[in-house]
Amino acid sequence: MTAAPGTKTTRRGRPGYDLESVLRVAVELFNERGYDGTSMEDLARKLGITKSAIYHHVPSKRELLRLAVDRALDGLFAVVEQAEQADGRAIHRLELLVRGSVSVLHDRLPFVTLLLRVRGNTDVERAALTRRREFDRIVAELVAEAESDGDIRPDIDPATTARLLFGMVNSLIEWYRPRNGADDIVEAVARVAFDGIRVRPS
Amino acid sequence: MTAAPGTKTTRRGRPGYDLESVLRVAVELFNERGYDGTSMEDLARKLGITKSAIYHHVPSKRELLRLAVDRALDGLFAVVEQAEQADGRAIHRLELLVRGSVSVLHDRLPFVTLLLRVRGNTDVERAALTRRREFDRIVAELVAEAESDGDIRPDIDPATTARLLFGMVNSLIEWYRPRNGADDIVEAVARVAFDGIRVRPS
Q1: Which of 1.10.10.10, 1.10.357.10, 3.40.50.150, 3.40.50.300 would CATH assign to domain A66-196?
Q2: Residue B1 pLDDT exceeds 60
Q3: Shortest Cα distance from A4 to chain B (angstroms)?
Q4: For the HTH tetR-type domain, which residue ranges apply (chains A, B) (predicted)?
């Protein structure tokens, strides 16, 4: 919507800002300064609009956080659902889950970064942590199932294997910067995780 | 040293607090609240001593940070030195570096946690980041050398392999809690990183 010139809604209806762009800038600030360290004032300044223009799109900072972590979690749980509906052995479903998660990280990196730094100080953060734990539980169960199928190495405790696997996946938030499509990074993580970095005599 | 009862040095010389224990509690607070979010007042309160009692051990908060990140970095660079002096192929030296680093994480977890969260706002933090980048460069070079020796998979860009490798190692700060010796976790990381989680037909 574009406001007619000279009306009081000029700034409010400033073209180029919709909820999506307000959310993206909010997530950028939350990642830079922390959620607690970012005020709606900071966000308004960064966007170059008034606070009331932000409230036109979203009722609170809390709601911005909720939308942001849900963007990450909904992506990850869509992947869980795909993996759970897939046929085949647990290791195959686990590989789908790893590949899909890397793809979500590629597509929604700032949102997943925020999710993984959430510490649980507010109700929104605690709800996000609960869903994260649910995700981790699903991974751990798949690893345990694949191990009892004889497909995953039995010499390491499955809980540790699951942690190392997603430790590697989640480390992407520290160093990965998406440039092209997700294919290269999905392939790299899946190969290293499942088959290791060493060349084996074939 | 124990102060004689009734003298003014009672709190200052409070038994049980030496520089090492002040440092450990400081690192715990820095990890909980951030370096910027922790004051010497907070530290004094946590220790149950006065600020001047802390200054008896260490001249500044900055110096506590320097001691803490150096504890982590000195451990990691001692491992680099051992790896560089070892004989054998690059992949062997790389494995020594990975195993040694996991062992340092086990032994000095709160210090490495602090190091990996440093963002570079102060001169001490910037110096730590410079040493971290030097460490990462050494890892990347070893990976590249091992790849040109034909020992590391050539289908992934060596820089990505190096990042994923230490992404997995560094993820330990997020979930690993040392209980027993370092052997189990060193073995688990080395096996998963070099040979992957999948069982291969032998």
Answers
A1: 1.10.357.10
A2: no
A3: 45
A4: 16-76
